[in-house]
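Q: For a teaching session next week I want to show students how multiple molecules come together into a single three-dimensional assembly. I've collected the sequence lines for a complex. Could you give me the predicted structure tokens for the whole thing so I can convert them for display?
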Amino acid sequence: MSIKIGILGYGNLGKGVEKAVKQSPDVELAGVYTRRNPADLKIDSEGVPVQSAKKLENGREDIDVLIICGGSATDLPEMTPKYAELYNVVDSFDTHANIPVHFDNVDKSAKKGGKIGIISVGWDPGMFSLSRLYASAVLPDGKDYTFWGKGVSQGHSDAIRRIEGVKDARQYTIPVESSLKAVREGKNPELSTRDKHLRECFVVAQDGADKAKIENEIKTMPNYFSDYDTTVHFISEQEMKKDHSGLPHGGSVIYSGKTGDNKHVIEYSLKLDSNPEFTGAVLVAYARAVYRLNREGVTGAKTVFDIAPAYLSPKSSEKLRAQLL
Amino acid sequence: MSIKIGILGYGNLGKGVEKAVKQSPDVELAGVYTRRNPADLKIDSEGVPVQSAKKLENGREDIDVLIICGGSATDLPEMTPKYAELYNVVDSFDTHANIPVHFDNVDKSAKKGGKIGIISVGWDPGMFSLSRLYASAVLPDGKDYTFWGKGVSQGHSDAIRRIEGVKDARQYTIPVESSLKAVREGKNPELSTRDKHLRECFVVAQDGADKAKIENEIKTMPNYFSDYDTTVHFISEQEMKKDHSGLPHGGSVIYSGKTGDNKHVIEYSLKLDSNPEFTGAVLVAYARAVYRLNREGVTGAKTVFDIAPAYLSPKSSEKLRAQLL
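A: Of course. Below is the structure for the complete assembly, covering every listed component.
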């Protein structure tokens, strides 16, 4: 009997979850739920119903875990607590400062409904967070560094697209090689925002747009670009399509710690061809864990820190010990 | 109130545990136990009693967790099940083929005594095993590669020391760069034993020893060297002391997987100045987890796969979410 997954929200992430479900022998897609008109949605799983998100509200949909693929700004703070009372849920909430509030809200409603809501699942927060925790627990005398990229930041790309005269844009976050090197050598440098990452932008301008003005607006944009060394390239629509249509990402968590006089460097790194597909795969592994833990009677809000690794794998504990330990 | 740790066995690993205890605010060293004459042992912790291992047998020593620092060949298969009935225990058992039997033996006696016995803790098995599990759970369609080194293999160094005419020896295990590169690029190569690692040996010969014979004996030694490209350097005793007195080690677990047509490469790597000190630090983090879980009523044998990461850290769940998620 396989675990029945529901997907709420069918954007890039929802599609990534759908792909991951297909690769997992013990889970199946039971339904896709959308706030758009269900008739307008073409999904990639034959025979799976596409329904209005409203259908979820009676709590009677036949799904074991609902994976909520919404945005952290406005969708998830409302959706995850709402559905955690009715279903086991997984989300990828990544607005760091608001995690405590979100956790409490999900905890209350999940406990009320006897369900589990696991929040902030993905690679950062998610797999990167795990690396920071394991490393700092083992070596309390140390320091962690997180570098992102090379990869496409969708938030930064969107910010450029909102500038007047911009038709399309893609922004790559790139770690500064010399800083990476110093951290890997265990030098524990103090690094400013500018020291850690570069921002490289590819922009398709509208006909007749003032490119110098666009470039200046990008480079001086507060929060997004002004604290970084930023380069801007204007390219054609065809070049954008040919060279920049993927959503690769990745990065490294590097922890440099000591035992007495001896130094130790721990690095966890990801090179991902598709950010949303990898994130979707992490969400499905945690959906498996949530399903199992809830059957054992566990309820409430959780994060990746609370889940014993064995719950993530479809393999038995005996097999895991024999094959992976 | 801090967690009281006992150390059984005061070799390199026991000393590493002692150092890790000093760096952890919430644990303290309550006693060192030895099969040697306790009077002959000078430890590095003032005021901590050194006692005969026999003292442990009545089960009345005032320790919360006993960390057993013995060898996997003959010590741990006997010691861990024996003491798991009397105390919560942690070991670093690493004879892979015998893990299922060892697990069962520890499970029986730990359950009988209402204790927890966690086995095979360290970096491989241990942190490397976790990387293999997390990666394969997230990307079921993939393959893992483990490379060790560059680092000192104590087992291989000992094997050389047993050859006639050898006064001292140090063996470095070195990953083959071209293979590492192919794996990191996601090429999923088929690699033989020889393709993955080189073995470099530094040997101090006794006066008048037949060096050609020693070199030949090393290079043709079954299991240890014959399946590898091995180089042998004869050096002086002073050079050995000056250049090869440390016990550095490390390595990488690289997992290369797919979602549909997209490739993803996950790498976890360690560069350790001191293998026994890092291993000791991992043992102490898991001792903390074992103590907490046993207080919650959990008993029986466990591995790193069974422990939720939050149990390893001295920080509260609230702090972990705020600082590391």
